Amino acid sequence: MFLNTLTPKFYVALTGTSSLISGLILIFEWWYFRKYGTSFIEQVSVSHLRPLLGGVDSSSPSSTSTSNGEADSSRQSVSECKVWRNPLNLFRGAEYNRYTWVTGREPLTYYDMNLSAQDHQTFFTCDSDHLRPADAIMQKAWRERNPQARISAAHEALELEDCATAYILLAEEEATTIMEAERLFKQALKAGEGCYRRSQQLQHHSTQYEAQHRRDTNVLVYIKRRLAMCSRKLGRTREAVKMMRDLCVFQLMKEFPLLSMFNIHENLLESLLELQNYADVQAVLAKYDDISLPKSATICYTAALLKARAVSDKFSPEAASRRGLSTAEMNAVEAIHRAVEFNPHVPKYLLEMKSLILPPEHILKRGDSEAIAYAFFHLQHWKRVEGALNLLHCTWEGTFRMIPYPLEKGHLFYPYPICTETADRELLPTVFHEVSVYPKKELPFFILFTAGLCSFTAMLALLTHQFPELMGVFAKAFLSTLFAPLNFIMEKVESILPSSLWHQLTRI
């Protein structure tokens, strides 16, 4: 009788109100997703409702044995999107400029080059530059935006005296081959060692001399590292390894904070992998892969490569699914998951699912820029280990199932920073490169659900307004069908129970 008394206007009002409410929910969910990268309803259910219902947060570290103490590093207060100098950055004149000559494309963005200019001023200048005329000229040269003006200033400084930083600038930007750059760096080394010895003797006389000695130390370390990289590029890998080992020892002996920014151990790891000296690679990792030190894609993926190397040649996904993973295979898979959690962009480049470009001069850890820099130099090392890429291909996507909400909670590392996309777009030439974004911003279920609900109820409201009598018949038929099982059960209950008992129950 209640259904028969409902008019078509009621159905129009009901469906219209439902469409309005679901539309408002859809707009709010879409705005929240665009701003924070996650669904509001899902976030509330995970953060508030699930703990009240007694749920266990599967994304948090379950034990100290599985995380190996690395979960404690999430309490360290560090900047999420700090930009680092790329330890393996190429030479502008001999490599970046040659790419521009061949393709007509600029491999470096203005933002990236501006960061390099700031680095050069930090590394190669100090307050006492006015005491040496050549250094005073170079202090202005590092601020020049025009490359030709910088090169001209370097030549002007060399006319006054042997200036190490002037040779550095010419080796980086004017030299068109690695051999020519190496020759200039050797001249810079000779001049830099003389300045270093003189400032070392005077460093305790005043704060001015101490700053000058710090600058000369930075210059000397930079020259030796670039000379080692020249040797590596020219095929003299053992010589490069020796120079890098000496630099690592020198860096540990000195207490200047800027030396830690060079990350010379990453150059050393790449050269040792080229020599296939895996025992020494493991020794370097044991020293630098520590919870108290900043991680990098080179550290995490090199550790994964070494563990994959022990099992990858005999690994078969079909056999592993039948018999289960062995201890060594489980260790390799866990190392891959750890590396992918730190930087999830790397596998697409290693598996050649995405094309490589020249790495930038600066990288954002855990970002697309770091993934490009790592894969550009280490892809050959993964290919050299038989089956390593196959193992990576079979296991890397499992990381995403382990971390369902990477922006909110990680497993072994911090939650994934949401600012990486913006920083990578500044560092990478987006004109010919599509920046990788993680996590992939797929529309959450509740946005799709509310969109479907809004569309469905709006359509019902429109049809009810246009064809009120016909839609009223359909509504009554739908409700009758919906309640048919309940009516059937009630009839069965009436037929089974005595009429007097049923009458008393209905009265109650």
Structural description of this entry:
With 508 residues, the chain is mainly α. The protein is 67% helix and 1% strand. It is elongated, with a radius of gyration of 33 Å.
What level of helicity do the residues show? 55-70%
Q: For the report, how would you describe the main beta sheet? A: 2 strands, antiparallel
The side-by-side strand order for the widest beta sheet comes to 1-2
Strand tally is 2
Radius of gyration: 33 Å
Order of helices and strands: HHHHEHHHHHHHHHHHHHHEHHHHHHH
Low-confidence stretches: 55-79
Protein structure class: mainly alpha
From the N-terminal CA to the C-terminal CA, the straight-line distance is 22 Å
Strand content: under 5%
The geometry reads as elongated
With helices defined by DSSP (H or I, 4 residues minimum), what is the helix count? 25
Overall residue-averaged pLDDT value: 81
SSE map:
Elements lengths: L1 H4 L2 H29 L3 H13 L11 H4 L15 E3 L6 H12 L6 H15 L8 H9 L5 H14 L3 H11 L3 H25 L4 H27 L3 H17 L10 H11 L3 H11 L8 H13 L7 H7 L3 H16 L3 H5 L11 E3 L3 H17 L3 H8 L2 H5 L17 H8 L17 H22 L1 H29 L2 H9 L1
Antiparallel strand pairs: 1-2
Helix pairs in contact: 2-23, 2-24, 5-9, 7-8, 8-9, 9-10, 10-11, 11-12, 12-13, 13-14, 14-15, 15-17, 23-24
Keywords:
single chain; 508 residues; mainly alpha; two-stranded antiparallel ribbon; 25 helices
What is the structure about, briefly put?
The protein is mainly α and 508 residues long.
